[in-house]
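Backbones bend. To wit:
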Amino acid sequence: MHLENVQFIFNRAFSHTLSKKKLLGTSMVLLLCSLLIVFFRSLAMNAGAWMRLSLVFLPIFLCAGVLLAMGIILIRIYHDEVKQKPVKYWNIIYQSLDVVLGASYLSIPIILSYLLLWMLLGIFFLLNSIPGIGNFFGVILAFAPFLLNLGAILLCIVSVSTLFFVAPVIALKGDNRMQLAELVARRCKYKLFFNLLLATIAALPLILLGGVLTITAFITDATSIPCQEPLYAMIQWFIMMIPFAILSSPAVIFFFNFSAESYVLLQKSKKSESLS
C-alpha cells in the first residue's frame, strides 16, 4: 500500500461527495439525529445526575444506528457511481431495506450493555445516598463510577467505529451475522495501523468541521438570551442545529465514501500479498 493509492481513493471519494441528492438526503437524516439530540437534551434539563447521564449517552447510540443505516445506502450509491452504472436512488433504497433493518439490530447489544452499566451506576448512587454510611461507600467505592463511565465511553467509541468498519462490509457483502463478524475481525487484524490511519483520514474533515461548528454554537448560545421555557429552549436548539446538519453533510458523505474505498483497498492489498 503506497501513498499514491491513498491519495487516489481520497480524491475519488471527494469527487463524489458534492451531489445535490445525496446532500439533501444526508441533511434530512442529520436533522433527524439533531431532533433526537435536542429531545434528550430537553429531557435532561431538570433531571437528576443519574438520569441526566443516560440522556447524554443514549442519543449517541441511537444516532449511530441511524447513521449506520444511512451509510449503507450511501456506500451502495457510491459503488454504482464508481462503476459508472446508472444510479437510481429509490431502487437502491428499496433494495437496501432488508439489509438496513438487519443492520439496525447491531446497535441493540451496545444499548443493552450501556443500560446495564447505567443501572450499576444507579446502585452506586443509591448506596451513596444512604444516611450515615453513604459517604463511606462513596469513598471506598470511588473507583466504581470511574470504571462505569469509562465503559460507557468505550461503548461510544465502538458504536462510532462501526460506521467506518462495519458499514462498508454490510453494504458490499450483506448482513450475514457470522460472515460479518468474521470479515470485520479479519479487517481489524490485518494492517491495524493502516486501518486506524484510514479511519483518521475519513473522520478528519468531520472532526475539523464539527469542531468549528460546535465552537460557533457555544459562542452563539453564550451571547444569546437563554429561553426559560423548556419548549422554547428545545425549539431554539433545534433551529440552531439546522445549519449544523446542512454544513456537516458533505463531511459525512465523504466519510462513508472513503470508508468504502478503504475497505476495497485493503481487500485488494490482501489479495495481492496472498498471490505474491
Notes: The chain has twelve helices and no strands. The two ends are 14 Å apart (CA to CA). The mean pLDDT is 82.
